Amino acid sequence: MIRWKTARLTAAVLAAVLVAVVAAAWWRDPYSLVRVEYARQRIALGLQRHSVVIDGQRWIYVERAAAAADAPVIVMLHGYTGSKENWYRLAARLEGRYRLVIPDLPGWGDSQRQPDADYGYAAQAANVAAFIRRVSDKPVVLLGHSMGGGIAAVVAARYPGEVARVGLLDASGVRFKDNRFGIDVLAGENPFGVHDAISFEHYLGILFYDRSARPWIPSPAARAVIAHRRADGAFEQSVLDRIGRSDARFLPGDLASRIAQPALLLWCRQDAVIDASAMAQYAAKMPQASRVLLEGCGHMSLMEQPDAVAAAVTALIEKGRPR
To answer: Residues 69-79: pLDDT tens digits?
Structure first.
């Protein structure tokens, strides 16, 4: 009985210490709550965290091996204001079949941000090509979402030796039908800007058509995300100036006719960011591309309909491969 009481007391003390440590960490760095949740998701998916320095730039990426050593390698590029974690729902649907490599692009997420560096399409495409050469000894299946899709298009066009197949999901980089988002960007605004709870809700509303697909963010974590995004406001604006308002904003579309690899174009009809009319603009330059238009989702196709996206990606990879 005494031993049992002692064990209960020890457990209670340890729990109290753990709570105190977590509380102290959160007080010093409120965003640590978000990092802890991301780490929980990563571990649950069997993804390993890695760091690599390429040309003086530190990349953070996660990786999961495939069941077969010769399986295709998929590299996934997130979008504007996004991070590697945006791909986790899709990664869960691709378990075991492919080697997955999911980085934070330079300047974003946990990867290094260098003052005054160029994070536009051309510069990031060169960065990604160098990253692919470091992490894979063969051409990869390159998937890009939104801004990452524009970057993936430039990589496939300019560095064809690194890319075996390419998938563009809700990709930026072409002139699409006018919508509120595009009009605001051209007016010099940042529709994705977050500085308080109202703008954070507006941001999520632009991204997601299906409210049930939004990530659950409890109040303390939401406040930390808002503060984090507010601090990133100037950086976000500088990148948007390059990819949304500069002379190079249509570089991905201009180069798309040079993409010869098997390709996938995937959009959601209700995308309020990159209107679905963009898919036809890319398709006109990429006649070899298969096209998938999903219903009932917005800009975050990879999070709103991960099963459908996984099926489309699998079809892209398996088509023409010997069994």
So the answer is: 899 999 999 99
What is the widest separation between alpha-carbon atoms in the chain? 78
Q: Which domain holds residue 273?
A: 31-318
Q: Whole-model pTM?
A: 0.90
Tell whether 145 is covered by a domain.
yes
Question: Phi first, then psi: what are they for 183, rounded to 5°?
Answer: -65, -45
Characterize the bridge pairing of strands 73-77 and 163-169. Answer: unpaired
Could you tell me the two tokens for 78?
Answer: 């997130």
Query: Could you tell me if 120 and 164 lie in one domain?
Result: yes
- Is residue 150 domain-shared with residue 284, that is, in the same domain? yes
DSSP string, 76-92: EE--TT--GGGGHHHHH
- In this structure, the answer to whether residues 255 and 295 fall within a common structural domain is yes
Residues 86 and 210 in one domain: yes
**269 vs 322, residue with greater confidence:** 269
Residue by residue, DSSP assigns 296-320 as: S--S-HHHHSHHHHHHHHHHHHHTT
Separation of alpha carbons 118 and 138, rounded Å: 27
Confirm if 154 and 125 have CB atoms less than 8 A apart: yes
- In angstroms, the CA 267 to CA 294 distance is 6
Determine the distance from the C-alpha atom of residue 85 to the mean position of all C-alpha atoms in its chain, rounded to a whole number: 7
Structural domain count, the chain: 2
Same domain, 273 and 164: yes
Q: Cβ(151)–Cβ(77) under 8 Å?
A: yes
The radius of gyration of the chain's CA atoms, rounded to the nearest angstrom, is: 21
Q: Are residues 9 and 94 in the same domain?
A: no
